[in-house]
From TrEMBL:
Cellular component aspect of the GO annotation: cytosol
Pfam families on file: ADSL_C, Lyase_1
Reactions it catalyzes: (2S)-2-[5-amino-1-(5-phospho-beta-D-ribosyl)imidazole-4-carboxamido]succinate = 5-amino-1-(5-phospho-beta-D-ribosyl)imidazole-4-carboxamide + fumarate; N(6)-(1,2-dicarboxyethyl)-AMP = fumarate + AMP
InterPro entries associated with the record: AdenyloSucc_lyase_C, Fumarase/histidase_N, Fumarate_lyase_CS, Fumarate_lyase_fam, Fumarate_lyase_N, L-Aspartase-like, Pur_lyase
Species lineage: Bacteria, Bacillati, Bacillota, Bacilli, Bacillales
Annotated GO MF terms: (S)-2-(5-amino-1-(5-phospho-D-ribosyl)imidazole-4-carboxamido) succinate lyase (fumarate-forming) activity; N6-(1,2-dicarboxyethyl)AMP AMP-lyase (fumarate-forming) activity
Family: Belongs to the lyase 1 family. Adenylosuccinate lyase subfamily.
Adenylosuccinate lyase C-terminal domain: residues covered: 349-429
Pathway the protein contributes to: Purine metabolism; IMP biosynthesis via de novo pathway; 5-amino-1-(5-phospho-D-ribosyl)imidazole-4-carboxamide from 5-amino-1-(5-phospho-D-ribosyl)imidazole-4-carboxylate: step 2/2; Purine metabolism; AMP biosynthesis via de novo pathway; AMP from IMP: step 2/2
E.C. number: 4.3.2.2
Keywords: Lyase, Purine biosynthesis
Protein name per Swiss-Prot or TrEMBL: Adenylosuccinate lyase
GO BP term (any one): 'de novo' AMP biosynthetic process
CDD domains (UniProt xref): Adenylsuccinate_lyase_1
Amino acid sequence: MIERYSRPEMRAIWTEENKFKAWLEVEICACEAWAELGVIPKEDVALLRQNATFDMDRIYEIELETRHDVIAFTRAVSESLGAERKWVHYGLTSTDVVDTALGYLLKQANEILERDLVSFIDILRNKAIEYKDTAMMGRTHGVHAEPTTFGLKMALWYEEMKRNLERFKRAADNVQFGKISGAVGTYANIDPFVEEFVCRKLGTSPAPISTQTLQRDRHAEYMATLALIATSLDKFATEIRALQKSEFREVEEAFAKGQKGSSAMPHKRNPIGCENISGLSRVIRGHMLSAYENVTLWHERDISHSSVERVILPDATMLLNYMLNRFGNIVKNLTVFPENMKRNMERTFGVPFSGRVMTKLIDKGFSREQAYDTVQPRAMQAWETQRHFRDIIEETPEITSVLTKEEIEDAFNPSWHLKHVDTIFTKLGLN
């Protein structure tokens, strides 16, 4: 991932140097396991742990000849050792190292992403509580529907991200696996204890069964989860973008002193951060498709997945890390305009209260059809004449004959629609 859309901590996990460090750790841990079994002398393992190192330029130099990155790596490591070099890669095949190290690297990345998710959820929690009672117009199909609150909108996001956190934990657990089972998964040249030992040392799990590779349904599920989280952020960002339209201006991304919105239009204050989130989510969703394509491998192994994963796993984790932090800051510093929300509620001449008027008529004995057919033409009249719906209702004998002026006035009280906000927040644990 380009530096513009990555953060140093996550980027450091996916460097070539850190990958080789992970490979080396797998190799040394495997030797330590063999020592536990009495196969490799413990003094040789101590020398391996103390002296084994690598030079990246040398790895690349050897790879030019071998055209095999793991062989180039093991030979470069062996050059840093004495007689104990004979134990490097003992009983292993390439993917024993590569897949086990990948699970270890993903574990490192997942620790950062889980922390990011928890932090973002906390931001949403605070915003939901802060704006719990800030009334605004709810919209369905983009059209004014009934009153809601901005806090409820934040609470909805909060609950969705809690679900995403649980999904992520499950997907992370399922991808943080290793396998050291040999060329076709039969442990022909290695004891299963080595696999268990290495994975335990790395903090990952040994695969119950594998071929030469871990099965890529694990990675497809993982990428699907990252894509779903990115899509949630896209959804939230799109909502902010819509509410920042000049016609609404109910919320606005923070605009820093000295910031510019347009090279041609000095007045512009654009939701560029949210647009950035929407755009980057498309990249992760595209990577999800690639991960699904990787599930189908030939027989006990091919490497058609390898080139893809070198791109999509670092890219997706770096992008999501960037997105969670950037969008978290956007939400945390979001400017909210309650007065504009109130004004927008009044722009549609009271027609969003048509459902409440209809319900009151039903309570007075109207059939639902009669009540609907009485209210709808008056609501349409309010739209077309730009008169307040309440005034038209008060001029309608069929309605005023059964509803008092006070009952009509009560039908237009926004608090009726918001009376269960506290109940919803209690259900969410937002107290």
